[in-house]
């Protein structure tokens, strides 16, 4: 409708009235609108769209690695499946590894809409939008396409967990996450950075940016985490001239791998360095010490994505929205609540001998290749 309105220099409302055979538009204008609609193929598109909506199948797009290895996205998928079933829909799962190809169920007209779970390229979204079906994206935000997105409040969650560290007495806090990996991680970094701006001092650094760079690892993190390359993470940690008192991590998996690397270097958590995560996955409660993290309502995200898709089917021309779901801090054992009583000097990663935490060496934390603690299923 917007294309027709633009071509004729009319309002979308006038076009809608004419195409739906309602009063309020003159005969001459109505004929003009209908002729232009036929010229632009509107009626054939509308017929195809109605036929697609008659199906009760929702196409789900998800990367293979997310489906196999991610507790986060498996919970999102559970929410999608439950809400779809509750509303009389079936889901058709399609695995994608960034190959820009339209799923067969969409090309064959067997799907009434699409839900993309996790990271997806703007190029792929553009190709999918050409199919004319409603699309909802979960845990990803496109900077190039106008699309409905269901997101956790990443910035607020990271701000809150960083403030928890500050309120507990920590003053030298770094961020551990790959800013080039996804918009969600960038948003979490921005929340951390906003909290750091509230510090009364940046401890000898000329500004917050220098402070952040001095204590953080901001690139090449996610691939190391996905591959469980603790050796590379050890090298990244050793590259920091002066280690912080605490790390805010981009997610729980990153936090778990960072703890392994810190232990390999002889540090104890949280006695020497505190570590906090994000997502509240099963891993966060299984490792030792149990991880302080940010809870994301993963199944609810999936439910909301289905609700939004169904709503969008009958509201094609309404503005697209980013729906932000609230998050909460889950306090566990990976930060030292007595930090206020401890001297706030930083930790020299090279020159200070770290105490040998024998008690932690007996604690169970080793991860297998799936990222789950040994002995857990």
TrEMBL record:
This is Putative HTH-type transcriptional repressor ExuR. Residues 1-55 form the HTH lacI-type domain. The keyword Ribosomal protein does not apply. Keywords: DNA-binding, Transcription, Transcription regulation. GO terms for molecular function: DNA-binding transcription factor activity; transcription cis-regulatory region binding. It comes from Caproicibacter fermentans. The lineage of its organism: Bacteria, Bacillati, Bacillota, Clostridia, Eubacteriales. The keyword Transferase does not apply. PANTHER family: HTH-TYPE TRANSCRIPTIONAL REGULATOR GALS, LACI-RELATED TRANSCRIPTIONAL REPRESSOR.
């Amino acid at each position: 409708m917007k294309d027709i309105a633009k071509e004729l220099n009319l309002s979308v409302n006038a076009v809608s009235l004419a195409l739906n055979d309602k009063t309020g538009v003159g005969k001459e204008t109505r004929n003009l609108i209908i002729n232009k609609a036929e010229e632009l193929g509107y009626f054939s598109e509308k017929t195809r769209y109605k036929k697609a909506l008659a199906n009760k199948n929702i196409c789900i797009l998800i990367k293979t690695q997310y489906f196999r290895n991610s507790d986060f996205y498996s919970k999102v998928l559970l929410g999608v499946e439950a809400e779809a079933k509750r509303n009389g829909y079936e889901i058709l799962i399609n695995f994608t590894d960034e190959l820009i190809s339209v799923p067969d169920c969409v090309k064959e007209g067997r799907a009434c809409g699409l839900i993309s779970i996790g990271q997806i390229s703007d190029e792929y979204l553009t190709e999918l939008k050409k199919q004319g079906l409603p699309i909802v994206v979960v845990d990803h935000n496109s900077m190039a396409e106008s699309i409905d997105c269901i997101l956790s409040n990443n910035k607020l969650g990271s701000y809150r967990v960083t403030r928890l560290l500050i309120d507990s007495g920590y003053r030298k806090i770094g961020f551990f996450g790959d800013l080039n990996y996804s918009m969600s991680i960038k948003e979490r970094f921005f929340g951390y950075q906003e909290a750091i701006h509230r510090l009364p001092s940046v401890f000898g650094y000329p500004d917050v940016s220098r402070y952040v760079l001095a204590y953080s690892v901001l690139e090449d993190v996610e691939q190391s985490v996905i591959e469980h390359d603790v050796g590379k993470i050890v090298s990244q940690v050793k590259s920091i001239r002066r280690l912080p008192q605490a790390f805010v991590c981009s997610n729980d998996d990153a936090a778990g791998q960072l703890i392994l690397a810190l232990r390999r270097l002889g540090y104890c958590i949280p006695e020497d360095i505190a570590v906090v995560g994000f997502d509240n996955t099963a891993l966060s409660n299984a490792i030792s010490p149990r991880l302080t993290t940010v809870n994301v309502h993963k199944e609810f995200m999936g439910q909301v994505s289905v609700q939004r898709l169904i709503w969008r089917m009958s509201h094609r021309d309404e503005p697209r929205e980013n729906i932000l779901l609230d998050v909460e801090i889950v306090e566990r054992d990976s930060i030292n609540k007595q930090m206020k009583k401890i001297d706030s000097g930083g930790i020299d990663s090279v020159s200070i001998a770290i105490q040998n935490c024998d008690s932690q060496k007996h604690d169970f934390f080793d991860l297998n290749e799936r990222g789950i603690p040994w002995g857990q299923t």
